[in-house]
Design brief:
Layout (H helix, E strand, L loop, with lengths): L13 H44 L6 H6 L3 E2 L4 E2 L2 H32 L2 H14 L4 H20 L9 H25 L3 H9 L4 H12 L1 H17 L2 H6 L17 H8 L12
Antiparallel strand pairs: 1-2
């Protein structure tokens, strides 16, 4: 039976506290295991990549200097220059960020500072839905719409059918909702008191947004941009469909080239043996 305290309320059993401690211990253990598992997975990925890289550079045909400075990637003739794949990746990423960063920030500022609550509640889910469209759809959109559009503007002799420009533009469209959504959350996290203080000093809404809110949310915006860059570098299907399927060392966005992820997709079709150099 429960005892009764001097206040007239029942005294809790000691067993109740014990059960709570047991459950807290179980929950803490599960949370620790989840955190440890994520760290262990990351370590495993780094280890596997490092091991394969070590085995690759130990081959007599591979030279580290030539690997970093070579302009040809043709493993069948022992040409292992990484620059064609790296430059194509950087070109598509740069184009994507030039599109996504300013437009994403502009959308975030509008949603946070200018849009009515009803408008914001309507537009933000639409932006987030765009981020959920399969990337293969974006890839064929780049190939069948953006590339013909570029060829009609600049000429078919200038813009190749497969080119890094159309892939980069569509990647920017893909990344834009990501940057806009995260940046808008960062802007909304800025205390209302900062805005009210600026308005009290006679600042306009644009001045408050540019000179007060944006600097205060800079860390969150930087995180959104970094996440967008990571997303662009790791994008696979858009570049595999629209950018090209041959390692080509060029900075011309109207030429075809193969990114690192696109090359991985191409060689993963089962044509390479497990222990080959290209693998």
């Amino acid at each position: 039976m429960n005892g009764v305290g001097v206040t007239g309320f029942p005294v809790r059993k000691a067993g109740l506290h014990k059960r709570r401690r047991v459950w807290e211990t179980v929950i803490q253990s599960l949370l620790f295991f989840a955190g440890f598992f994520s760290i262990f997975t990351t370590i495993g990925i780094v280890y596997e990549l490092g091991k394969e890289a070590w085995l690759f550079f130990r081959l007599p045909e591979v030279n580290l200097i030539d690997f970093l400075t070579g302009t040809k990637w043709q493993p069948h003739i022992n040409e292992f220059g990484i620059l064609p794949l790296a430059t194509a990746t950087l070109v598509t990423t740069a184009i994507a960020m030039l599109i996504a960063t300013p437009l994403g920030l502009a959308a975030a500022v509008y949603l946070s500072e200018y849009a009515a609550k009803k408008t914001r509640n309507t537009l933000k889910p639409i932006l987030e839905i765009l981020a959920g469209i399969p990337t293969i759809v974006y890839g064929y959109f780049a190939l069948t719409f953006v590339t013909p559009l570029l060829r009609s503007i600049f000429g078919s002799g200038v813009v190749e059918i497969y080119n890094t420009g159309s892939a980069g533009l569509v990647m920017g469209i893909l990344i834009l909702p990501l940057i806009a959504s995260i940046s808008e959350d960062a802007l909304n996290a800025v205390p209302r008191s900062l805005r009210e203080a600026a308005y009290g000093l006679g600042a306009t809404k644009l001045e408050v947004a540019v000179k007060v809110v944006l600097p205060a949310a800079l860390s969150g915006i930087a995180a959104a941009v970094i996440l967008g860059i990571s997303r662009a570098i790791g994008e696979t299907m858009i570049v595999a469909v629209a950018a090209g399927a041959g390692p080509n060392f060029t900075l011309n966005p109207f030429k075809g080239a193969e990114t690192m992820t696109g090359h991985i997709v191409r060689i993963s079709g089962g044509d390479l043996s497990y222990d080959s150099i290209d693998y």
